[in-house]
# Entry
Amino acid sequence: MHAEPNLYDYWPYRDRPKVVWPGGKKLAFWIAPNIEFYEFNPPKNPLRPGWPRPAPDVVGYSQRDWGNRVGHWRLMELMDKYGMRGSISLSTALIDHHPEIIEACVARNWEFFSHGIYNTRYSYEMDEAQERAMIEDSIRTIQAATGQRIRGYLAPALTHTERTFELLGEYDFWYSCDLFQDDQPQPLKTRQGKVVSMPYSLEVNDVITYGALAMDPWRYADILKRHFDQLLEEGATSGTVMCIPLHAYLVGQSHRIRPFEAALKHIADHADDVWIATAAEIAGHYREAHWDGTLGDIRRRGLERPGFGFAAEEEA
Amino acid sequence: MALPPDYLEYPLRRYGMDQDRYAWRPAGAREPLAWADGRRVAAMIVVPIEFHMLNPTGKPFKSPGAMVTPYPDLRHFTTRDYGLRVGAFRLLDALKARGLKATFPVNAVLLDRVRPLVDAILADGHEIAAYGWDTDHIHWSGMEVADERAVVARVRAAFDAAGLKPRTWMSPARQQSFATLDLIAEAGFDICLDWEQDTVPVAIRTDSGAMTAVPLSNELDDRTLLSDRRQDERVWAAQIGEAVACLKDEGERCGGQVLGFTLTPYVAGQPFRMWAVREILAGLADDASVWAGTAAEIVDAAA
# Structure
């Protein structure tokens, strides 16, 4: 086990080369609806149970099913109203279970990225062939259903192995949403490929805010506005990224969706300064316009450390 | 079944403390402190700079902020790392905007790794304190004294190598062994932020010279209030304001006192919390009866 992932170099927020988003925008904004499928009776992973209670966890299971039957459609309508497209963190198997949702998202030109096969199948203890099979299944299945070659990844239930990121590079992923160390993108240290660490804040993720942080619907809208205001102000110095990761089974609830709308309206009201985009668009722009500049700045400051993710420096 | 007879023997049952590190002194018996310019409250802002590794032993207990999920817990590693990369710089900007000085305890293991942050802290005139080796090297009574002495020496050597001579020590998780005070005094530290038995600096006895404890409020710890107890930022800021108002109010009777509180970079430095940080700092800076001092400045002013 390593003390540090060595997936990116330390790079202080102050005095970075200026990031400018297309159209001279200061903040790149994206929304990540997690469209997930949790199995009724998942197989056991040695390190984590599929559900907090013994299966069948009927409340947990049916609440998530509610998200797919009701909540997601509500959220889709709300995003349509503000002209915001989603970048979907997809449990790939949902394509087989609920193709209607996929068709509705394709019709809206939303982006899809992989969030594993099921959110009840974890990467912990997978061998390399198994992790490859999961990633290849995602690429193949999503392409067949949507025509899109996926470019993004968020490990199922945020479960990783030491090789996850190297595989993303090898399979030509453009970005990972798995790491939360920054409000700007940064290249990941993989041997192959060009994978960007894409800001996907857990701090404003609705699972965390409504759950672990016990926020009421109005407080969640308030912190989203304040989060946005701070990052927009800093974006004048160098472009920032704000993501709102969402789960329709939470934010789509009837006591929450209307208070949440206030946050989207606040952001839409600043459209002159904000690039409302998908994650692949942000990653694509960053890879073209800012990748080399970031690495050059890290090198110039003497902050570049040898090695790649999870490879000790002496092994490099 | 019964407990052994000595369970009902109380060898230290006597007037005053049951240890000899410092004497009992009720608040009414202390000589009032006079801060310069008639100020009533010394605010000690503490910004802990912590390394939360992917593979902590969690012994003898898990440090606050330690990893949660199975290895590799990239979620919590990177969330903590956010503070070192981004949040700490936001806090530095906010302190500078109000001309306030703070104390930054730094885990020795970070001195090289986050050198640009260390330099930025120094450039703004803040105090750097030693914060042990890292969050997983907790000082506690299960350690052999020789082993603990070696950890303290290693910390001192790392600061020496970084060209820093901190006077102030804060222990990881603010946990000590029975020997910690003697060992840090032996290593040249004369200020400690682990003890909070009064609202003024307190002299503590060690085997190796003078030590002063400056109180840092556990009950106002931002990680506890905001992350663990899920209080909202308004309530957090209001409590710090309330503490200042109370200490001011007592000033006439009790003299100058200290209010020590933390701004943890990965917690307070979140974008959506910075408005509250700015409000807290503005409240301190705009109040003529408050001064913000580093730990060493407060100790020197109280001497």
